[in-house]
Amino acid sequence: MNQTTRPPRNHEHTRGQIRRFILDAESLPSPKGAALRLIELARDPNASIDETVRVIQTDPALTGFVVRAANAARFGGIERTLDLKRAVVRVGMQMVRAHALAISMIRDNKKLGCKHFDYIRFWTESLYTAVLMDNLAKRYREFRPGEAFVLGLLAGVGRLAFATAAPDDYDVVLARATSRGVPLELLEQEAFGFDHHELSSVLLADWGVPTELADVVYWQCDPEGGGLLPDSRPYRLAGVLQLAAGLSAEAVAPPEEEGASGIVYLRAALLELDDEDIAELTADAMVELRDWLQMIGLPPLRKPGG
């Protein structure tokens, strides 16, 4: 992970470029099945929780996700439940939709034409980022339940969108990023006019993620450059996301890519986390990640000792 300071640009022009890219794309990661129906229900002011529960019940994997999330450690002290309706209330609809989106896209995009894009690694990294975010959120009480997990799970979806919509062009970008050691974001801007953080932000907004969180995704690589007020919730979220994403990328990287970026340690220091805190955080999150991978049907970590 690299610190990427964006040069001044016209944000409306950039959004216009992203909109044209989305419209021209023959294929994009998109919600289907239960995920699509849940997004539709979120836009219906008259939708009831019973309707939501009925949609979730049509997908056994999503049902398992929601019940597990409702019984996670962050709800410690609350009686465990197997009742789906209670689980939905406890977890919150934002997190339910995030789970549904992830399951839908994991099922739908296993065969991509972008050979340098490692699909399994992408989702393993996304899940680990989500777990790390969730655990970090316990330290910062201003986070809403599930908010951090949602950000971690979906913050990198722009990379999947590039690999799906422009596999040949993105393959070249990924190869150059590896061989030249140039930050991926800069090469994406050069090739497409925008980077995967910006693309992620627009896609998440389209899928009903609150604008505040979409903005956090946009500025995750440069929290100080986004005009976010110091110690505000968005600033803190962006910093935590940058740290979690960096730790996750390091954990799932093949041996030849090992070596965390210095910005990871700087961000940890800014968040007042020492080496012992980070070691405890990553160890606990790795245990939880293994459970998530098994539940969602992804292979276990391939990295020895991971």
TrEMBL record:
Gene3D superfamilies: Hypothetical protein af1432 (1.10.3210.10). This is HDOD domain-containing protein. InterPro entries: HDOD (IPR013976), RNase_Y/CdgJ (IPR052340). Pfam families: HDOD (PF08668). It comes from Thauera sedimentorum. It comes from the Bacteria. PANTHER family: PTHR33525, TWO COMPONENT SIGNAL TRANSDUCTION SYSTEM RESPONSE REGULATOR (PTHR33525:SF5). Residues 28-223 form the HDOD domain.
